Amino acid sequence: MVESPGVSYAPVVLSDSPTSMVISVAPEVARTLDIRLPRLWKSTPIPQQPVPYVPVSSTAVQRVKAIAASVKFDPVVASIVGNISIPQMRKDVRYLTGEDPSSGIMSRHAFSKGALQAAAWLQEQFQSTGASCELKPFLRGFSPNVVCTYAATEDTTETMLLSAHYDSRGSFGSIRAPGGDDDGSGVTALLAIARTIAHKGIAFRKNIQLVAFSGEEQGLYGSKAYAREMYELGANLTLMIQADMLGYRAPGEPAQLGLPESIGSLEVMQLVSNISAIYSPELVVGTTRACCSDHQSFHELGFPATQVFERAGPIADPMYHNSGDLSDREGYDFEQIRSIAKVQVRVVCCSLKLLAAHEPSVAASAVRDPPPCGRLRLARVELVSQQVSIC
Ligand SMILES: [Zn+2]
């Protein structure tokens, strides 16, 4: 679709099936289509040009594969997230949803005042944990991405990225869009990770980014812009994991962790699955057809990426894209969010330890036979006495 000022576009249905439809609308309508669609329908803009296929490089695949194949239980990594606080998570998500009346947020729809307020608040919260944050605008009218970085203790460009989207969507015709699960839960997990980093004084060998995207609901606009920026800069991204909808647990079902069936890197998925099995056995891991969150933007540009989701199966949350998507309701499970947040941190910590083990200063035998995370425990114990943990 080409933007031509003054040209009017009548909506045209180009194809139609029971599960999908291709329509042509004016660009400004395309960006706000989410508020006109029934709740289980999602819009995805079709690019004006063919999307170039950028495969994940074999070096990047091998790096993730080596980590996934070598993961073993490490009590230090296990204990690093032992203190994630559910009362704090509840407080955080209630601010974002507006269930905390002091926030006054009615909606975090990407064009709303509430989204701008949420972005500024998130920046402040992440910065209070020691991250440097930037509000990065990407498209006129949209609230900005919130990009936060914990700089590496080593001189390296290598980066790992954990993300969620803070924009939300409500019921058709309602101005209330609390987005407690979609994706207040993923953002709350990011905040919990940040607060743990501060509380435990964790320092990272590589750069760690925590990113809250906007414009996800309109077609991944925020993450597309940021992934493109990283691609053009030739970013050295080991992996990215998007957390989108972590909180809902259907009646009678166990706590779960869903990984995408169709979009993302198999190797990152395997790594997350291995880490979850070892460190969070309370989660039943499986695949989901729920798709197309912000990890897609990175995967399309050749970065190893995946998503974590609340269910090994299709979306079951009755409040999905509904103005009733609050945190204080039946089925909203903070324990499940916490378990998944722990998996995210452990993926980062365990990966960094293994990457460190592959560095040239390590004995050649270690390079041929990657050690388990636990082999680096001694160094960490020494650092703990200085009140610093290092991942
Ligand atoms: Zn979402």
UniProtKB/TrEMBL annotation:
Gene Ontology BP term (one): proteolysis
Database matches in InterPro entries: M28_fam (IPR045175), Peptidase_M28 (IPR007484)
Pfam families linked to this entry: Peptidase_M28
Assigned keywords, A-Z: Hydrolase, Metal-binding, Protease, Zinc
Occurrences of domain Peptidase M28 (ranges): 145-329
EC number assigned by the record: 3.4.-.-
Needed co-factor(s): Zn(2+)
A GO MF label: metal ion binding
Similarity field: Belongs to the peptidase M28 family. M28B subfamily.
Name of this chain's protein: Peptide hydrolase
